[in-house]
Sequence to fold (520 residues):
Amino acid sequence: MSDAFDILVVGAGPAGIAAAVTAAECGLRVGVVDDNPAPGGQIWRSGAHLPAAAQRWKARFEAAPVTRLLGWRIVDCPEPGIARAQCNGAEIGRDSTTEIGRDLHYGQLILATGARERFLPFPGWTLPNVMGAGGLDAMARGGLPIAGKRVVVAGTGPLLLAVAAHLAAGGAKICAICEQASFGQMAPLMLQVLRQPGKLWQGVRYRFATKTSRYLTRCWPVAAEGDQRLQTVTLQRDGRQWQVECDYLACGFHLVPNTELAALLGCRLEKGFVVTDELMQTSAPGIWCVGEPTGIGGVELSLLEGQIAGLAAAGKTDAARKAGASRRGALGFVRALERACRLNPQLRDLVRHETIVCRCEDVPLGALLGRTGWRDAKLHTRCGMGPCQGRICGGALEFLFGWHADSVRPPVFPALVSSFLGPETLDLPKEAV
Amino acid sequence: MAEPNITLTVDEVVVRVAPGTTVAAAALMAGTQTRVSVSGEPRAPLCGMGICFECRVTINGALHQRSCQILCEPGMRVTTAEERSRR
Fold:
C-alpha cells in the first residue's frame, strides 16, 4: 500500500508539528510520520502537564487536515520522492491484513527528526535503572512508577533541571542534580535566558520545583554499582568522591542530532549538523530540515523553523523570509547552549579498560584502543554494528576519540524483509517473514 | 494517569496498567530487566525513545520488539531476557 503527499514531514515533535500545520493550512496535502505512538516528540510527550503553547500547537495539529502515521518509522528512501515506512510492532498481533510496510510518495520532504541524548560510558553505566535523563523522564511519562523513588540526575544541559522538575512533580525524591559544566561556562547561556521571559520563567519554575535538591556544578558520576540493578552512584566534585544510594540514575550529556536520514538523502552536514539556507532548505533539492538537526536550540526555535519550512515549501517565500528574519536573532541561544554544554575533558577518564562502550555488541574500551577510526573498530570489534547502528556509542566515540560515522546506508533502522517486499509481492508463511 | 484497567502478563506475572502505559514501563513494574546482552549482562531501557534497542522484549511471540514505543494492550504476553537464547 502506498500514499501520496505534497509534503511529507518526518517527526511529530514541535518542529514537525509546526511545519505540518503551517503547510496544511496553506492547502497542501501533508503526511506526518513519527515512530512514537502519540505526537509531541520528546519534549511534548504525552502523560505530562504540558505548557499552554504546547497544548495550542497540539490542538492545531489534531484539527489540521493532515495524515498522521504514528508508530511508523522511515527505514529507507529507495529513490527520490519515495520514503519507505515500517510499522512498529506490526508482528505482535499479526494476521494477513496487518500492514507492515508502506511506500510514502512525496513532492517535498521536511525532516524534523529531533535529537537523542549523548551518553558517556563509565563503570556501571550498563546496569538496569541507569537511564538517560530524558530517558527516565520518557519512561515515567510512559507509566513507570516513580513516586517515592530516589533519583540522581546527572550529565549536562538545561534538560537536567527540566527532568528533575518533572520527576519531582511525579513524587520522586531528587537526591542531587549534577551538572558537569562550571558556573562560568554557563554564564552566556544565562544571559540569553534573561532576555527571554518565557525561558527565564520556565527555569525559575523548574528550580523552585526542585528547591530541596542540591544543584552541583562541576559534578558528575564516576561509577554506578549494584547487584543486577543500580543501588549506589559514586559522584565526584573537585576531586572529592562520595556515594549516594538511589533507585535511578538519570544521566545524559546534552543532545546529539538525529541526522541519519538527512545523510542518507545526501544533505550536506557540517560539524554534525544539517546545513540549511535561511528558508531551511538543505543542499538536496526538495528536502528541508528543521529543529534540532540544524543546531540544538530548543522548542521555540524548532517551532519557528518548522513554520519557515512549512511556508517556504508551500511556496509562500515572502512570508517565510519574514519568519526567517526572527530566526537569525534566536541563533545566539544555540551558540550559548553549545558552549554551556561543552564537555569537561576529564570525563574521558571515566571509562575503564573493561568498561563496555558499545552496548549492542558488548565491546569494551580495551578492544578499541589502537584502532585508527570507527570503520577500523567496526571491522575488528563489531563496535557500532548492533541494532542501534552506533547511535548510542557514536556520541561517546566522538568525544573519546574524535571518531565520526563515515557513511550511512539503508535501512537506517533495523527493518523486516517483508517491509521491503510488501504483502502483495510476498506470499510466505507467517513464520518466514 | 487513568485507572489501571489493562491486564497483561510479563514473564507470567500479571501486571495491571493504565491506558497509555508503555510495555517497557510494564516490564520494569514486573521485573528488573528487558533483555540479556550478548555477553550475558542484564539490560533495561536506556534512552526511552526507540533509539538504543535495550528495551527489546518478546511480545505475543514476536521477538525484538522495542517496548518503549509500544503501548500495553489487554492480554499481551510479554517475555523478557529471551532474545539471546533464541538468536
In short: Helices of chain B lie at 23-30, 83-86. The mean pLDDT of chain B is 93.
